[in-house]
Amino acid sequence: MESDLHPLSRFNSRLKYADDTNLLIPKILTFPFLTSFFHTRLWAESNGLIINVDKIKQLVLHRPHPSKHCLPSHLRI
Asked: Of the candidates 40, 50, 47, 38, which has an alpha carbon nearest to the alpha carbon of residue 13?
């Protein structure tokens, strides 16, 4: 049923594991996060599915800059 769910941006990716779907959105956004979420929510509603909002998480990953990152003293070189 999920095969007709397509991300709004070509830079976004969709990953599926069991019955969970993950939407990966890079820092360079062509659409804001909420726009992508509402697009997915509209798709779910039109297909008779319910999004469990208690399970929604936003995880932001980035590489810290070495000079701007404070390491604990026992890890400093």
From this structure: 40
8 Å CB contact between 58 and 24: no
| Dihedral class, residue 23 (left if φ above 0, else alpha if ψ from -120 to 50, else beta) | beta
Q: pTM for the whole thing?
A: 0.62
CA distance 25 to 14: 9
Domains of the chain, residue spans: 2-75
pLDDT digit string, tens, across residues 15-42: 777 777 778 887 777 677 788 888 888 9
